[in-house]
Amino acid sequence: MNTDNKKTQERLVVSYILWMAGLVGLGGLHRLYNGKIVTGLFWLLTCGVFYIGQFIDLFLIPGMTEEYEQKLRLKGGVPLNQPAIASQVYRPTTNQLTVQLIAAAESRGGTLTVTQAVKSTGASFSEVEAMFKELLKSGYVRVDNDPTTGAVTYHFLEL
Q1: Model confidence over 8-17: pLDDT tens digits?
Q2: CATH class label, 94-156
Q3: Burial 39-61, CB ≥16 within 10 A → b, else e
Q4: What is the DSSP letter of 24?
Q5: Where are the domains of the chain?
Q6: CB 3.0-4.6 Å disulfide test: which of 70, 116, 135, 159 passes with 140?
Q7: pLDDT by residue (tens digit) across 127-136?
């Protein structure tokens, strides 16, 4: 079960528990919990609209929780058709990363540092360093230090 479904399930369980509080006169807590403030307060003041609204909500709670989760996703900048994942990380394929590194090096006169490569490609430091090692083994790049900064610099020989 992904993180998004787990949160929705947890919200659903809590909503039903709060719904049960309506059976003892505290109707509407489930509505307040799901962001329906005005109707939640109305339910609270009228004992769940004389228990009729409270009973009907028994069947409406799944829709309320889903609607509230969608609002939260939109606030967080996650599109509705995409699940909310704790960490969405861009992972280029090996071929994509190679092409991105070559393009970045070409725009910098044929040389590139690891930091410049990370900034240009969006890949992690470890991914960039691993790719540079592969390119070094295959003879496409050579490595030395920048005379001014001392940074490790990779020179793309064919650019």
Answers
A1: 899 999 999 9
A2: mainly alpha
A3: bbebbbeebbbeeebbeebeeeb
A4: G
A5: 3-75, 94-156
A6: 135
A7: 899 999 999 9
Residues in the chain: 159
3-state secondary structure 101-139: HHHHHHHCCCEEEHHHHHHHHCCCHHHHHHHHHHHHHCC
Q: Let me know: does 116 contact 104? Beta carbons within 8 Å.
A: yes
Burial of 141 (0-12, 13-18, 19+ CB in 10 A): buried
**And the tokens for 40?**
């939640």
pTM (predicted TM-score): 0.51
Report whether pLDDT(35) > 70: yes
User: What letter does residue 159 receive in the DSSP assignment?
Assistant: -
